[in-house]
Amino acid sequence: MEEMHINIVAVMVAVVANFFLGFLWYTPLFGKAWAKEMGLDTSVKSSGGQMAKGMLIMVIGNFFLAYVFAHNIAAWRYVPGTSEMSMFSNIMSSTIFTWLGFYLPVDLGTVAWENKSWKLFGINTSYHFTMLFVASAILTYKQ
């Protein structure tokens, strides 16, 4: 049986990249619209402790995502035909299938069951897709 090789440096690079992507996405790019759709008061600033806790939880979540995604991407190498696909096609396949199967259903559930707006859905699900693309690009390139 072949052993899967996981590049832990690539995993850590994906963690850092997605941490910064999350910051950009939910602060200067869509922060005000996201906060409005979430019903948050933007005049109230979070305490330093709340921010540190949130960042730590985000880093842990990013690590789990990147580590498990690295395993999934490595496993896809055993699927017939993937070795003939371009690197970009492999990146898009892992991104699209993971987003369609794991993120999109949950994001749709927030609209259906939590009464979240379609605008919030768009902000969050496009972030999830972009986050997966960034992680997949790093993990596929560095494998």
Topology:
Layout: H1 8-29, H2 31-38, H3 48-76, H4 87-114, H5 118-141
Helix pairs in contact: 1-3, 1-5, 2-5, 3-5, 4-5
How would you describe this structure to a colleague?
Helices cover 78% and strands 0% of the residues. By secondary structure, the chain is an all-alpha fold. It has one domain (8-141). The longest helix is centred in the middle third of the chain and has 29 residues, at 48-76. It is globular. The relative contact order is 0.18. The mean pLDDT is 94.
Give a brief outline of the structure.
With 143 residues, this protein is mostly helical. It has 5 helices and no strands.
Oligomer: single chain
Tally of domains: 1
Mean pLDDT: 94
Helical amount: over 70%
Instruction: Write down how many β-strands occur, each being a DSSP E stretch of 2 or more residues.
Output: 0
Q: What is the overall number of helices?
A: 5
Overall radius of gyration: 17 Å
Structural class: mainly alpha
Task: Characterize the largest beta sheet: strand count, sense, and whether it forms a barrel.
Answer: none
What fraction strand?
A: under 5%
Low-confidence runs (pLDDT<50, min 5 residues)? none
What are the secondary-structure elements, in order, as H or E?
HHHHH
What is the overall shape? globular
How widely separated are the two ends?
19 Å
Key traits:
143 residues; mainly alpha
